Amino acid sequence: MADVLIVVLLVLVLAALVVVGVLLARRGRSAPKAEAPRADPFGSGDVDAVRGDPRTLGPGAIAEIRGESYAVRGTLRLTEDGWSWTEHLLENAAGRRFWLSVEEDPELELVLFTALTDVTVTPGKTIELDGRTYRHQESGTATFTAEGTTGLDSGGTVHYQDYAAGDDARLSLESYGQSGKWEVSRGEVLSRYEVRIYPPAG
């Protein structure tokens, strides 16, 4: 009789184990697998990790452009209707100054601008300058805050008119505050691979 009871108990234990195993297998099969977030295959994350992220630029950093080093003297942070971008005042070893525009719209665009102090232009649909025709792209009024050395107040407004000639040439007209005077800068679009960023020391 004892042997029969042992056999019955073993059968019941085995049956219970089979039921538990089936239930666990079904639960594992039906549980949805969490999908890994999809990354932008054309994003610049890897490039930023190797060459530094231009979006993090600020006073005291170094920007190396086409092998030449520039100190970031100051930064303008601009906003308009929910959009934001930055402009950085750069200075090279010879003391020459340039502006680097950093904007995502939606792709990251880097433009190196040189001020044209001896040029006067009037905004319109097109502007002819040095044999090139620049076509109007956009205009507006943005608010800005300044950091470091920029030659501007700590904050204010700027009216702008942006022009382009081809894929890589830009022309920017900016008027700060109520001056009514347009400051003209000619820009060149940079490849992401032409720019390397070094954060401020310390």
Helix content: 10-25%
Number of E strands? 11
Q: Residue-averaged pLDDT, rounded?
A: 87
Gyration radius, rounded: 30 Å
**Could you tell me the strand content as a percent range?**
over 45%
- Write down the secondary-structure element order: HHEEEEEEEEEEE
Largest sheet: 8 strands, antiparallel, barrel
End-to-end span in angstroms?
84 Å
Number of helices: 2
List low-confidence stretches: none
Brief write-up:
The protein has 202 residues and is an alpha+beta fold.
Any overview of this molecule?
Strand 8 and strand 9 form a beta hairpin. The model has no long low-confidence stretch (mean pLDDT 87). The N and C termini lie far apart (84 Å). By secondary structure, the chain is of the alpha+beta class. It has an 8-stranded antiparallel β-barrel. It is globular, with a radius of gyration of 30 Å. It folds into 2 domains: 31 residues; 143 residues, no CATH class.
